[in-house]
Known about the structure:
Layout (H helix, E strand, L loop, with lengths): L1 H17 L19 E6 L18 H7 L4 E3 L8 E3 L9 E3 L17 E7 L27 H4 L18 H12 L8 H7 L3 H14 L5 H7 L5 E5 L2 E7 L5 H4 L10 H7 L21 E7 L3 E6 L6 E2 L20 E2 L4 E6 L3 H10 L12 H11 L1 H10 L2 E6 L2 E7 L12 H17 L2 H8 L4 E3 L23 E4 L2 E4 L2 H10 L15 E6 L6 H12 L4 E6 L2 H10 L4 E7 L6 H4 L8 H4 L10 H10 L6 H17 L2 E13 L3 E2 L15 E2 L1 H11 L5 H40 L2
Parallel strand pairs: 1-12, 18-19, 18-20
Antiparallel strand pairs: 2-3, 4-5, 5-7, 6-7, 8-9, 9-12, 10-11, 13-21, 14-20, 14-21, 15-21, 16-17, 22-23
Helix pairs in contact: 1-23, 7-9, 11-12, 13-15, 20-21
Amino acid sequence: MRRLGLFALTLLLGLGLTACSDRAVNSPHPTGAEAGNTLFTAFSQRSPKNLDPAKSYSSDETPFTYSIYEPLYRYEYLVRPYQLAPRLAQEVVKPVFYDAQGRQLAEDVSGDKVAISVYDIPLRKGVLFEPHPAFALDTNGHPVYWPITPEQLAGKYSIADFPEVGSRELTAHDVVFAFRRLASPKVVSPVFSVMAEHLEGMREYSEQLKQVLESDASQPHWAVLQELGFPGVQALDDHTVRFRVLGKYPQFKYWLAMTFAAPVPWEAERFYDQPGMLRHGLSLNTWPVGTGPYRLIESIPNRRHVLERNPNFRGEPYPCHGEFEDASAGLLNDCGKPTPFIDRIVFTLEKESVPLLGKFLQGYYDVPAAQDADYGIALTVAAGDSPEKAQLYEDRGLQLLTSTEASIYYLGFNWLDPVVGRGDTPEQQERNRKLRQALSIAFDWEQYISIFLNGQGDVAHGPVPPGILGHHPLPEGRNRLVYELLDNVASRRPIEQARQLLAEAGYPDGRDARTGQPLLLYFDSAGGMGASASLDWMRRQLKQLNIELEIRATDYNRFQDKMRTGSAQMFMWGWMADYPDAENFLFLLYGPNAKAVNGGENASNYQNAEFDRLFEQMRFLDDGPKKEELVRRMVAIVQNDMPWMFGFLPRSGGAYQSWVRNARATQMVRDNLPYLRLEPKVRTEKIQQWNQPLWWPLWGVAGICLLVAGLAWWAARRREKATGLSAQANHNAGESP
């Protein structure tokens, strides 16, 4: 009885205390965390696998790698088309060209005369690596943790477990060491094959490393990399790095904006290469060492990762230039202020999208997922489908930002196929071209985007997407054989024109004029395009022309085999730019890159001598009017030949809370986190407003508990009274004569 009364009293006291506060009690973060200068975001699949800059090539790793490491170059955050700017380099340099005899050539020399392009890149002085135990020295100048003893390593599973740290200035030798690591068979970098094609001596250097490491396994990897080098990357002095590029390759500069080109200190390799480190989860894959605005201070696999402001970072100024509308959008308000603006970034695992979006709408996440560009699209689509959700997002002040990215999905025609391909004779070539044109008119990509992308995409009129030099916007840039101009708007040509072209191609009403047989086309599907709904849509497009479509569905491995052998007739594929240059899209149609012939990325096996000639000129040109004109001529050629239905340009986008400033939707610019700024006071107020605790249900529970306690007390009292009366009666009976 006393226990029940004590429980009820405790409950009432607890309710009295909590009811005095209107603070949110459902926060997943520590009390008061929302008031700090910390950005909260999530990751939904797994912890980042590779944070080693030589290995990392996955989009879910880029929020970490581009915040911790610094390449030599970067992209301007707000300028479009995308433009390179210096990061660790003092400037974006122009190469000096030399012929095979070592004579310097003119700046505008044709590419076929260039034997070597030399890039001498000056580095910024005074750049420091983050504090790290790899640099820790004792009073005698000796490394504290090398060689490390088992006793020193015991119990250490995080960089935070090492109390002694140090730092030093970045030098050109760190850039050289990083590129030597790219060639190492022990590292296995995904970018090695590309770099080895262009950097002098890199492929031979990789073979030399392999032989040396295999002949004497006792040699430390870091020591071998310090001793052996190759001419393609050299340190001229402590602050100048030289690259020697084979031939003329203007696109090389874009590779220097990727974290593959980020410097790696040899001390970090030496520190992590010690016995026992890997067993303790200590490596460059898990604990990177960089010069960037942030450093990794906490890493709990598949649970939580924390970036913190690097105290050694110099503070890069926020950009002052962008597009016309950026000033009115407030994106230039922080012009010139030192970045980063945010002190800490906390990544928390959220396996399911529903609770993740729920917490985002409650204000507990500032950005749903820093590396995922799909949430802005998903919420935009949801708002379009539901007025209630649209109103909720508006009330919350969510920023749903979308943009058309440097990527394309296209439906390819195999140029080797006798029906939809190039054709052998001039007559057949013209017939096949008209067939491809008729099919391109019939395929309503506007409808596809509306149905399958919920309107979040744009029709492609050529192979070069927006944001890339040479892209020609509508209406002038329209595919003129598929679109006509009506009231200054690019409009798809009517289906009657497609039927007329089909008849001119020799297939009146969808039948072969010579045999009378129905025209049957084949589509090889793999991956996402295997969905029955999208394939049914494709059949309906061709039904307008009385053409039958047979789907040859297969797994991705078999699909790739068909592409390698050139046995597919029609297929769907896509491409996302590695760098913002028209060459990275037009090479998909360059003849010598034909997949079935040379194993290249020209999956359509397209061949056009004039296109190839212009491509070979264009690829050696720097950005400018001449290059732009060549790109447009090449686009016009493929618009006429139609080796592709150009398909669509998907959009991507981010979702941001109203208190997040300087947000810009982009996938090409990976180092965006330092530019974001928070207003924690606004966040605190909104979270409190959106998550008001409801105490009345607990008061109801308390009332029920009190009622139960009262009834129990009353029943107990009755029992006690009845027991007392019975005892008294028995006592009285015992005293009677």
